[in-house]
Amino acid sequence: MIDFAFLQVADSLLGRIPSFLGGERILEPQGNFILTTGALVLAAIFGYMLWKKSIRSTQARDSGSTVLPQEISSILEQAMFHRSRVDVGFHPISASRQTNSCALYELAGTGITLELLAGVSPAENWIGKVMVCYFRLPRGEKSPYFYKFISNVVGLHAIGDVAYLTLSLPDKVELGQKRRHLRLEVPPTDVRDFRIWASTENTTFHLESDLSKWPKPLAIMTGTSGEGLKVVDISGSGIKFAFHPTHCPGLGEYVVKNPLLFMRLDLEALGKMSFPAYYIASRLRTKNQDFDTGLLMLGYEFMEFCSDQGAETLQWTKVEEDSGIDDIVTWVFRRHLELYREQENV
């Protein structure tokens, strides 16, 4: 973890609550009781509204999963196209229970039909059972995406010696891998703003929510204009970017000796779902250079972050090792599905 000095200056939430409820006015007992009761009722209503908002937000941004029928169909259609193997087992999966490998035979509006291996004979009592299914989508030379879903057995039939298992369409498909590893190559137009600063621990500019109070960036990329800087790919836990040192001399000189960077990443909205810009403290993990072209490609791991949402000061939070930055994971997952649908329509 990066031990930045700014992590020590977060104000107490209680210290920010206005003191308008204070004062020395003395109420009569009855008036005091009525006021107290009213305050408790208002507090309960306000708390309930916040809880409902939190639930809706969680449901809308369940990172690395989707409950939208169109997106579920896109994922399963990709699996069908790639003839992905599906490993199924009774839910919940335990060490004592085995999974069976199947082929995705048919995808219809009424269900998913899986072809079992020769010699596997499902019993009639499988109907109504809950199954958990795992599959992956290949990505050429890149690491595949792993998915899983839970569904009910709704039918069995056989053609010759081969048995077929029909499952209901799942209500939800989610990543079967650590969310932070879901990585996507992004078109330049997906990046509203990406800029990089040197990491200096003897200043407090990284607390400023006003971007004009930050020093001059080492490099900036805005849409397709990047001063030689280009975002290559993004995940919930890191970013890879490339640049020509001759076009970004300050950045090229800095990364030679310093592994830490500050960056600001602002991604385009996806449909009706918008995402805040994020300030991110990151550490260098990979470094490659094409000596023919001079292009330098750097991979950085996200260490700490905060959202740019108009607060007086930026409040930094550690990036959880297993999950990454939640909003960026969601953005990558949903953008991947969008790009697939766009390719289908070409």
Q: Can you give keywords for this protein?
A:
346 residues; alpha+beta; Pnp Oxidase, Chain A; 2 domains; nine-stranded antiparallel β-sheet; six-stranded antiparallel barrel; 4 helices; 17 strands; disordered N terminus
Give a verbal description of the structure:
The protein has 346 residues and is α+β, with helices and mostly antiparallel strands. The protein has two domains: 68-177, Electron Transport, Fmn-binding Protein, Chain A (Pnp Oxidase, Chain A, Roll), CATH 2.30.110.10; 183-344, Pnp Oxidase, Chain A, CATH 2.30.110. It has four helices and 17 strands. It has helices at 29-60, 69-81, 249-257, 326-344, and strands spanning 65-66, 85-90, 100-108, 111-116, 130-139, 142-159, 162-167, 173-175, 183-185, 191-198, 219-221, 229-235, 238-243, 260-267, 277-289, 296-308, 317-318. Strands 9, 10, 11, 12, 13, 14, 15, 16 and 17 form a nine-stranded antiparallel β-sheet that branches. A six-stranded antiparallel β-barrel has the order 2-3-4-7-6-5. Helix 2 crosses helix 4.
